[in-house]
Design a protein that fits this description.
heterodimer; A: about 525 residues; alpha+beta; six-stranded mixed beta sheet; 19 strands; B: about 325 residues; mainly alpha; 13 helices
Amino acid sequence: MIHLSYGPRGVLHKLRRAAAVGLTGIAVGLASVAMPTDAEAKNTFIFANSSAYDTMDPHAVFDVGRVAYRINLYDGLMRWEDNPPELNLWLAESYEISADGLKYTFKLRDGALFHDGTAVEASDVVYSIERILALKKGASALFQDSIASGSTKALDKQTVEFNLNSPSAIFMATVPEIHVVNADLVKKHEVDGDWGSAWLSSNDAGSGSFMLKRFDPAKGFQADRFADHFMGWGDKYLDAIEFRTVVEINSRVLGLMKGDFHGSDGYMPQDQIIRLRKSDNVDVLEQESMRIFYGVIHNGRSPMNDINFRKALAHSFDYDGFINDILSGSVARNPGPLPNNIWGAPKDLEGYTFDLEKAKGYLAKMKEPPRKITIGALAGYGQTEQAAALMQNGLAKIGVESEIVSEPWPVVSGKMRDEQQMYDVLFLWKSTYYADPNNWVGEMYDGAKIGTRNNSWYQNPEVDSLLHEAQTTTDHAVREANYAKAATIVANDAGGIFIYNTKWFGPINKKATGFRFCPIGNGQEMRWVHFD
Amino acid sequence: MKLLVLILNRLFWLVPTILGLIVITFTISHVIPADPVAFVAGDNATAEQIEALRKQLGLDQPVHIQLWRYIVAVVQGDFGVSLYTLRPIADDLAGRLPATLELTIVSVLVSAVIGIPLGVISALERNSILDHVLRIITVSGLAIASFWLAILFQLLFAMELGWTPLQGRVAGWGPDVVTGFFLVVSLLMADAEVFWDVVSHMILPVMTLAFPALATIVRFTRAGVLEAINSNYVMYEEAMGLPRRVIVWKYVLRNALIGTVTQIGLIFGILIAGAVVVEAVFDWPGLGYYAVQSILQSDYNAIMGFTIVSGVIFIVVNLSVDIVHGFIDPRESR
């Protein structure tokens, strides 16, 4: 056995000294590097987005998380703006609806240009709707039933005519989703009848307020101001925008506090909002949005097909505990299937309260004790899992067994369309795809949409009749009354467990002003924003 | 000669290994009850619309037919396109792989360059205060969650001290990429400012990834050195009067490094997988988030592409480890 007493003391000493010198050098070096927040220098607004921009094709996706490129790079005939949302003329300067409600004729404004300088014409609108219908992706499902391929006509360069299969009161509300692409440009890049999909997934063929400069699916996109946009620009505007994918919430918050980012999504947990409010760099704007959180109840299966059990479920959820304790009061109680702030929402709807005695009373009215039920939640979406746990806790207290199943969205999305696989209860959100009451009660509880958009297998002839009238008449007063009545009936039937309407807490850099929040654009339309 | 045979042997087995990987991953990803078509079609799609899209995408075919088509395409160098974006998977991978590889390679190099000498010193100075301190540090390195460590580094170095950038790979958008390896690009451009910017962005993620890796390397090197210095040949060399530094740094270290090098190969694979968390925290545009997102969305071609690339990297790294073994211990390559 050798006793190694020859440790290289000299070497150690040198190493220590070298390390000390090295660390000092690195610290001095790093401190001397001016970290360019190049955004401020170039009047660029940098937005940290939680979802990745994996495509730039405006017709490929239709979600709230990636709305920024659709509304900033592209225009539609109409546009939703502000809160409550108003449907404004955009590329169109006027429109007419025929008496039978089948023909919608839009007159395009003069002077609207695509980013390559060519004029926006009616033929571009026709190409865009045909492309949407052919690709069958994104917002396509909104138009598949109402518009036949080949039915849309360019009457002249400025006039486009949509011919609907049947009268639709919601068509106008969905027109902003027809993002107009430069037909000639896209056609040039079509390969094997792909409608230019491969090319448009990374390029820009729009007329929007900003034009794409760079796109990297791993990072996000940059776009420069389009000086020739038809809407014109005031004295103050942004020169460029950058939407960067930052998936980790803590990194988004620290970046906002440091001033690296100027905006981010408005649906962060409340503890992060509190951190942001304390920052010198950040203002937090607050708006009631239109994104309801609710429990979908499978009404078509025993024991949920018994109204007594559904009411027992509705009384077993601790609404106050969830809203005030878990979510720190950052959302607004929403007792029905329509967001409180949309027209048609019933004003006098009280909704259910957390009342276990009432729940037990309803259980006692059932013919036989209920079986163990499954409560679905979206994996990775903490609130749905918390709501499921709270529901399970409430049910345990009234003697109802339950099992929580948390699965990723593609799995949940598939199961929701299958009567056998659908969970007994499932917690999720319903966002604003178009600002019309039909987006909620008309999609979620219409018997004709069972298995597709009606995932609760709820069917009530009276509700169906009210909804179908509201979906076809153009009489606003009738529509408002019908949606209110339908929503009230669904709530009284405990067709779902209606919990809250989301508030939007938009963190914005203190130097940026001009924000106009709209639930549809999720507060991400940048043309109004500027730095003071 | 033996080394050449070893390399050829490994390359020969690369094909069936990757084929097996494809079959297993393809089957698993297609039999789990996720329906990406419904997801792609959107919330408002009807059953008919979903089925039409399924047919259009060829996903209505039996799994074995889809698998055969996929293998034929991959052999022809076609990884397919993303279900969601229709972008070629090869482009997506090529855009992200360099970021992950650069981060991983630098982290492994840093951990090896610091870890091996520390392991030797720790062994030579065993049971000294230095050895105890290193033990505390290395055990911490293995125990601390990288997610937590990453955030702490951000809070201290980026927010409090302002020494490093908070996140990202480079300030702004970075150089127009030729290779995707920003360190290489900036050196080729001979642009010291960009190089320093890239290095400064790399410091925190590399520290986070290298810390646990360094801990492993220190522990393995220390154990290897301790075992070697207790060998008879060291006693013989000592008796022969060879200089101590020659005994330690030439003979002892060479024998001690076999286990360490094997570990470095494994660490490389672990770091590529572990980069998911670090990439998320530091907004590093690499493969990690892409892989996670593809799995969550059941974007089949993207999952397969990532799996194949990871498999090839892992095999190549292990082959490299075998080659390095041959250099360290020539008996292995004879």
